[in-house]
Amino acid sequence: MSVTGSTRALRDGARLNPWLAAWLAALVATLLVYQLRDAWPWAVRYPRAWNVPLSVWISDFMKWLINDFDLGLFTFKELTRSLSWLLDWPLVTAKGLLSSGFSFSSDPSASIVVERVSWVALIGVVAVMGYKAGNWRLALLVGGCFGYLAVFGQWDSAMVTLSSIVIAVPLGVALGLFVGIAGFRWRRFEAAITPILDLMQTVPVFAYLVPILFLFGFGPVAAMIATIIYATPPMVRVTMLALRQVPDEVVEFGRMAGCTSRQLLWKVQIPSAQPGLMVGVNQVIMLSLNMVIIASMIGAGGLGFDVLSSLRRLSIGQGLEAGIAITLLAIALDRLSQAFANRPPPEHRRQELSWAARHPYLLSALGILVVAWAIGLVWPAMHIYPETLEITTGAFWEELVEYINVNFFDELEAVKTWLLLHVLIPVKRFLLQLPWVAVIALLALAGFQLGGWRLALLVACLAGFIAVTGQWAKSMVTVYLCGLSVMFAALIGVPVGIWAARNERAHRVVQVVIDTLQTLPSFVYLIPVVMLFRVGDFSAMIAIVAYAVAPAVRYTDHGIRQVPPHLIEAARAMGCTRRQILWRVQIPLALPEIMLGINQTIMMALAMLVITALVGTRDLGQEVYIALTKADTGRGIVAGVSVAFIAIIADRLIAAWATRRKRELGLA
Amino acid sequence: MATQEQSGSEAGASSGKVAAKTAKLTCSGVWKVFGQGAKEFLARRGTAPNAAELTGAGLIGAVRDAGLEVGEGEIFVIMGLSGSGKSTLVRCLSRLIEPTAGAIFFEDQDLLKTSEKEMIELRRHKMGMVFQHFALLPHLTVLGNVAFPLEVQGVDRETRKRRALEVIELVGLQGREAYYPRELSGGQQQRVGIARSLAVEPEIWFLDEPFSALDPLIRREMQDEFLRLQNVLRKTIVFITHDFDEAIRLADRIAIMQDGAIIQIGTPEALVLDPATDYVAEFTKEIPRAKVLSAQAVMSPLGDGEVPSGGVPWDTKVADLAEQLVDSEADLAVLDAGGRPVGRLERRAVLDVLVGRKSGS
After folding, report:
1. Are residues A382 and A487 in the same domain?
2. What is the pLDDT of residue A54?
3. Which of A140, A134, A125, A519 lies closest to A331 in space, CA to CA?
4. CA-CA distance, A233 to A136, in Å (whole number)?
5. B149 in contact with A at a CB cutoff of 8 Å?
6. Which residues of B touch A272 (CB under 8 A)?
7. Which residue has the higher pLDDT, A345 or A182?
8. Share above pLDDT 70 across residues of chain A, in percent, rounded to a whole number
9. Which residues of A are less than 8 Å from B177 in CB distance?
10. Is residue B263 included in any domain, yes or no?
């Protein structure tokens, strides 16, 4: 920001730019405060005595809620209990169907057993769904992904994960839809939920787990509640957006046809908004999957638990196999739901067809289920993939990692040590020694310059919250790790984006890679990193960079592509070389968009950062993780909210800059 | 700005065409002002504010003091350029938008005092509307779209299918019942829109620029189709357009809007003969007068001389009688509705109109 200030100062010649003066003064003041650190130690390091024990208050409140809060007819505890009970039985049913089967009887020797859905049948059904939503290639892809689960012995865990998703997704979609409709109907309700949604989408996933663990205990139901809460916000947003985008004329038609407001909503607005809503459904599915994996920490079980336990045991092969299973499950679910979302609207057909002829896919799916079940009665391999035929690659991966570690240990270690000594540690020290008073003041100054006093106040208050609740030092470690990761992600992502924007073939390849990267649950990124670099800040940073690089690439690519073609033609007509066009025309005009990509990268980096607490970082993420293991609600929430506030500060400042710059360039 | 009522400035014969019929839809003093505190601002002011005063108060007057009367069975066209407030006015008339002030009567019913529930009933049974961009529901077939207004009324499946098929046939879309909107051309989609609005047999039919989104050739075809339908159905119609040619072609009477106000209401003939302002004159300038003016507009008094042998009805357009006049080589008599001669058509006056020269000068 001071860069724009200084260029302006140059342009204005001798006249001193007031912003430049302000920034110089602020920097001098910062230095002064630092020099006076012995006289005013409180200004550099936030005094412990000033801490507001917010986390203690929250914990006490939660304890009161669970132990003493009485809603009149029933207590709060009874409420959570009955909610758990209510959610438990669909979950048990889904698990029975997909994973464990049912057995009915009081006498175990003569129990009636209903087997779970056979693996052959399920592969068949998802392939039919793939064919219905897309084409035979999708059918093959989806069938193949599920086939991997069976052949590589991941079926049981994957079905536990899948059964959670099968229940969580419809509930999340329904909840999101209803809240979204309410927000659409009542502006005031929307104004009330928007900041909550903002916060929910920036608070790191672990932070959700803590209060839920406290309220609902450890187990699959608690994990599912966390999953639903985590996956719902985008559906709420998408619902409000999609309903707003229904053309006015269509709504007017509905009213002229004499619809009541209920008819208008369910017969006109929601069907017209359906393509948009399907995008939300896809997001709910992907977020649910991400969360179900992470929620293995509070008892979700399934693939996430496999990864978690093998990470803890450093059993690379098993972890990787489970990780690949998660990846394939994610890809299958993503492609399938996207294909359903993008399905072209129906074509007309003859009316007189029978019901059976109109539902060929449903019938064939049912047929597959019945036939497989019948065969399964005489041939058990239909139900449970025979163990003797399972393939495991665990040993192979372990050998590969061992090979790399034996043969390239020195090189890897040298890179790691050099970066740690010359980049990571100095930056960390520098940030930790910055006076907190000065940091808040500088943030406020930036806010004031970019968005006026409101933004300045917001930024200062959020940063102040972090200091006051005693999170300053940990926050600085978070900022350091996140900042460096984002820098590396930008250094990799922006050039790749530029390359993709200027080369069609590169664009297609990059697109596929990025799509895949963005489908992967964050957990998966930890596995290869830990294999090669073990635990610590460096491993965390690599995982974060890998996870967060996608938006930097995507936005850069998009930003450069959206530069108006007539400007490029004009530049070419003036005789610019390709390089000049890039540096003088495309990059300056794409910069606001690129910055929005960096903004997304920051958000994703912060989300990943907290998960890297599993590989031993010492920042706010660790704080949340510790809170989770101790079920210390207050501590977890305060640290989680602090992470969210860092995200919001970065988001608001960058967004304000990008909006202003776009306006200046006439792009918005 | 005063509204200039001009429906029958010439002979009684002309006004007799509409004034004899009862008014179906009337409105007076209708305002739609956007902005905070618009209602209070209008109420506080005794006299009507002009555009500058509204802007000064931070308000936008989309419709200003509009008044009009639509007779039963009449095609009433509201014509104006984009931003003139014509679409807002028609939405006020159907109460899709709540007017800031004014009175709107549908027959004897004050629409602005009608409850939301009664309004729904009214729209279900007595109003139909066609939209510029068709506003078809993408997830329903042609049949589903056309039957939709009946469906929300709770009409049973068989009845609504029968009725929908009737109107689909009326607009010439038989055989396409099972198609989805995106499988149809623009002209066909608007036919669906028209069929859908007719399914409930409305008494008043609003058409908001129904043909503006179509190609010129298709537009022409649809206008003919529309006139054919109206010949059969005899609906009371409020038709919005920005195309003056279209207005002339279709209208019984036209209201011209500018900056939210109605500046003139009259038959196409009256507008061409006697434009109220330069703005209106600008529109009428390019219009071929022979196609607008009728025999009675160019006739001269019978005088004492002999009544010409040949005769034409008073409302024949000049363009249509030219050939007859050229063939007869003599003047023609103009006949009123009862077949009695009321005036004389001089060859010279007709030729003046045909070549576009101002008559009488």
Report:
1. no
2. 82
3. A519
4. 34
5. yes
6. 137-139
7. A182
8. 94
9. 351
10. yes
> Is residue A293 helix, strand or coil?
helix
Residue B85: inside a domain:
yes
Which pLDDT does position A667 carry in this prediction?
67
Tell me what the mean pLDDT of segment A371-393 comes to.
Answer: 74
Within this chain, do residues A374 and A486 fall inside the same structural domain, yes or no?
no
Coil, strand or helix at B63: strand
**Does B91 contact chain A (CB < 8 Å)?**
yes
Residue in B91, B97, B131, B141 to test binding to A, most A beta-carbons within 10 Å? B131
Nearest-Cα distance to chain B for A383, in Å, is 40
Nearest to B135 among A253, A258, A260 (CB): A253
Cβ neighbours of A348 in B, within 8 Å: 141, 176, 178-180, 183
**Is there a single domain that holds both residue B156 and residue B239?**
yes
| Max mean pLDDT range (A52-56, A108-112, B97-101, B354-358) | B97-101
Final residue in a domain of this structure, among B287, B304, B332: B287
Same domain, A488 and A595: yes
Contacting residues for B163 by C-beta, under 8 A, at least 6 apart = B147, B150, B155, B199
- List the beta bridge partners of residue B255: B78, B265
**CATH number for the domain including B342?**
3.90.1280.20
Q: Does any domain span residue A368?
A: yes
Domain that holds residue B40: 12-287
Domain count, chain A: 2
Residue B19 has pLDDT above 90, yes or no: no
Taken in order B75, B79, B82, B83, is the CA torsion positive or negative? negative
Q: Which residues of B touch A276 (CB under 8 A)?
A: none
pLDDT at A37 over 80: no
Minimum CA–CA partner of B116 in chain A = A260
CATH assignment at residue A520? 1.10.3720.10
pLDDT tens for B181-201 read: 988 999 999 999 999 999 999
Residue B48 backbone zone (phi > 0: left; psi -120 to 50: alpha; other: beta): beta
Range of the domain at A316: 76-97+117-344+357-387
Q: Does the beta-carbon distance from B148 to A347 stay under 8 Å?
A: no
Q: How far apart are CA B340 and CA B299, in angstroms?
A: 14
Given this model, what pLDDT does residue B9 score? 38
Which of B117, B118, B129, B197 is the best substitution to test chain A (most A C-beta atoms within 10 A)? B129
Question: What value does the mean pLDDT take over residues A1-28?
Answer: 64
Residue B284 has pLDDT above 90, yes or no: no
Count: domains in chain B: 2
Best to test chain A binding among B93, B106, B115, B137 (most A CBs inside 10 Å): B137
> Is B265 within the bounds of a domain?
yes
Q: How many helices (H) and strands (E) does chain B have?
A: 16, 13
The shortest CB-CB distance from A347 to any of B96, B131, B180 is to B180
Instruction: State the CATH number of the domain containing residue B64.
Output: 3.40.50.300
**Is residue A285 helix, strand or coil?**
helix
Query: pLDDT-based confidence at A109, cuts 50/70/90?
Result: low
Residue finishing a domain among B228, B254, B287: B287
Q: Name the residue in chain B with its Cα closest to that of A250.
A: B135
Answer whether B60 touches A (CB < 8 Å).
no
Token code pair at residue B184: 């149809």
**pLDDT value of position A668:** 58
- 8 A C-beta contact, residue B54 and residue B82: no
User: The complex's ipTM?
Assistant: 0.84
| Count of other CB atoms within 10 angstroms of residue B185 | 11
What is the rounded distance in angstroms from the CA atom of residue A94 to the CA atom of residue A86? 14
Instruction: List the single range of A288-302, A386-400, B9-23, B116-130 with lowest mean pLDDT.
Output: B9-23
How many Å lie between the alpha carbon of A263 and the closest alpha carbon of chain B? Answer: 7
Enter the pTM of the model.
Answer: 0.81
**In this model, does residue B145 exceed pLDDT 90?**
yes
B4 assigned to some structural domain: no
